[in-house]
Model the fold of this input.
Amino acid sequence: MGTATRVGRRGGAREELSADEAVASLRAERRGRLAVDAFVRFRYADGFSHARALAFQTVLSIVPAAIALVGLSSVLHTQRIGEVVELTIGRLTTGPSADTIHQVLQQSRERAGSGGAVALWFGAAFSLANVATAMCQIERGSNRIYGIERDRPFHRKYGRGLAMALGAGVPLGLGFVVLVAGPEIAAAVSQVYHLGHGAAAAWAVLRWPVGLLLALLSSSVVFRRAPRRRQPGYSWLAFGAAVHLVLWVGLTLLLGAYLRISGSFDAVYGPLSVFFSLLLWSYLTAIALFLGVAFAAQLEADRTGHRDPVRPDPETESDSEAGRDTATRQ
Done:
């Protein structure tokens, strides 16, 4: 159970907060203090635990989805899409894990037509269920960050999670993939569809605004729909989503640089290095997401005048009251 203070509205007002109010609040507050308070809110809302759970759900979504997409492409007569996905994954994986990934994807493609299609469809459904569960985990973590101790009822929570998985989770994932694997996707598409250098050059320029726009819009939808409260407008929440994207891009670049420079990672984990790097990347992504939620929550809390991100410690308060009673009796 988290101990973050509950974020309310000023005077119980129901006004629609917008970007203008967000800019005014940012100008009125010291940026350093706001960032520190947002991190404190994230920490006392048990943000790291929620991030670990979300990372686990992310990995359970990505791995079966990739295998099912490659395998089912031959059954659905969309082999070229499967080839693009397989080539992209092959270009992203290097070292000892590349052979393992290649064998798994090759087996899923070859056995799809000989009784393996049922397992692949089950894997695709399992991946979608995990995306919906991940959205429910975002609701749980966001509620604690906003100081809300109870989630929505079961049917509303998971029904909303499924709707968000289709309406926001898939575009958010596409935006991340475009940003992370843009060059690899361009090379794979060019190889499969025999595109010229002009198309690859255009994609190299367009992938950044397209990926950032998809990720920003989807993050704003998640920030507005996930918590169990009446959220501000999308333009207000876009500031928290922007913090999330800046942190996510920075952490992804740092992790990528470490994996490229350091040769010890592949040496230690061997064929499992790609799975451990995926786990680490998912964890950093989840931390960045909840830190963005905490920034949006703290920005709204500062606007109401209740800046303290954490509820007072009951033990400290009782000790202080006991000390005051002792001093009064003396």
User: Anything to note?
Assistant: The mean pLDDT is 79. Residues 10-311 form one domain. Residues 137 and 190 are 38 Å apart (CA to CA).
